[in-house]
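<goal> How does this chain fold?
<body> The protein record starts here
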Amino acid sequence: MTPPKYDPDGQLSLGEPAPDFTLKDVISDGQVSLASLRGKVRGAVVIFSCNHCPWVIKYEDRMIALTRKYQEKGIPFFIISSNDIVKFPQDGPERMKERAAQKGYPFPYLFDESQEVARAYGAQVTPHIFLFDGDLKLRYRGAIDDNPDLENRPTINYLTDALDAVLRGQGAAVSTPATRALGCSLKWK
């Protein structure tokens, strides 16, 4: 298999296949594998996130609402925490499970202890969004929308626009395929 291509900034390049992962879901205590979805979904969203980041907290309710809307349409969401839990223990599995229960997460909340998955995607901040089409090729990467502070008043809904394009079968023609993901830097070991 050919290794994926990356942009000069280290992020997975548009059009590249989703790097596979098998990670522990802190909600179910089971293992979740992206490879098991190949050929079974209309797309997939991978979001690098965590518990403590103020940017994530601002976007959290939107992440939940988008998941509820789009997973019914065949696009599951996977939220991955990759932060160093020695320096940030609040991002560890037990606290992740507490946060998921508190907020009623409708998506798996996965723990990337080795940080290998974050590196494979070129994740840089939390939240950092990666949207793949039904063939699991990257069609959008970046921010959820252009306004983290005013939940009900973003002017551009980047992820929603890209999700709708993928559902129409126009993933390769997403109008804004990449934006700058804004958030807290990933906490590397």
Remarks:
- The helical segments are 54-71, 93-103, 116-121, 158-167.
- The mean pLDDT is 95.
- The beta strands are 22-25, 31-33, 43-49, 77-81, 109-111, 125-126, 128-133, 138-142, 184-185.
- Residues 54-71 form the longest helix (18 residues).
